[in-house]
Amino acid sequence: IKLAEEAGEILSLENLFIEKALANVGELKPSQKLFMNLHPLSLRNANFAPEQTRKLVNKYGLEPENVVIEITEQDIHKDINHLLRQVDDYRHQGFLVAVDDVGAGNSSLRALSQIRPDFIKADVSMVRKVDSNPLKRVMIETLVLLAEKFGGRVIAEGIESSTELSSLVSMGVQAGQGYYI
C-alpha cells in the first residue's frame, strides 16, 4: 500500500481490492455483512464516488445494505466535513458505515456522534484485559451507550479469553472478533 501511495496509484489499488472482495464473497443473506476498509486517500479522492462502489456491488449481485464501509479512526480528524459528506453519500447509496480501530488513536466522542456509524469497532487495545481493568470497562460501556443513542452497535476486536467475552457481553457489546471466538 505504501508503494501505491508513493506512486499515486492508491485509487487503482483500492478499486482492485474492492473488485476482488466482491467477486469472491458469494451470495449474502440480508443479515450478513461484508466489511470493506477504505483507504483514507480514496475517501478524499474526487474520482472515488459512492455511486461507483454501488455499481460494483450490484455487478456482483449484492446489495449496498450488505456492505459496511469502514473508516479508520486515524482519518476522522483530517477533514471531518468532507468525511461527513462522504459518509452521507455512502448512506444515500444504501451502504452501512463503521469506524474502525476506535481507541487506538485520537478519535473523539464528538466525531463519533457526528458520523453516527452503524458499527463502532472497539480496538484491541481497549478490549484486551477489559475483564480486569475498570477504566477500560467504563470506556467500552461509554461506546455502547453512545452507539445505542444513534442506533449503532459496538464490535469488540481482539477477544482472547472467555472472561473478556463474558465481560463484553455483560456491557452490551453485540458482536466481536478475535482468537477466542
How would you sum up this structure in a few lines?
With 181 residues, the chain is an alpha/beta fold. The protein has helices at residues 2-7, 10-25, 40-43, 50-59, 80-92, 109-115, 124-127, 134-149, 162-170; strands at residues 34-37, 67-72, 96-102, 119-122, 153-157, 175-177.
Task: From the structure above, extract its key features.
181 residues, alpha/beta, 47% helix, 16% strand, globular
Describe this structure in words.
With 181 residues, the chain is α/β, with parallel strands linked by helices. Helices cover 47% and strands 16% of the residues. It has 9 helices and 6 strands. It has helices at residues 2-7, 10-25, 40-43, 50-59, 80-92, 109-115, 124-127, 134-149, 162-170, and strands at 34-37, 67-72, 96-102, 119-122, 153-157, 175-177. It has a 6-stranded parallel β-sheet with strand order 1-2-3-4-5-6. Helix 9 links the parallel strand 5 and strand 6. The longest helix is centred in the N-terminal third of the chain and has 16 residues, at 10-25. It is globular, with a radius of gyration of 17 Å.
Number of strands: 6
Order of helices and strands: HHEHHEHEHEHHEHE
Poorly predicted ranges (pLDDT <50, ≥5 residues)?
A: none
Please tell me what the overall shape is.
Answer: globular
- Multimeric status of the protein: single chain
Give the strand order of the largest sheet, numbering strands 1, 2, ... along the chain: 1-2-3-4-5-6
Count of alpha and pi helical runs: 9
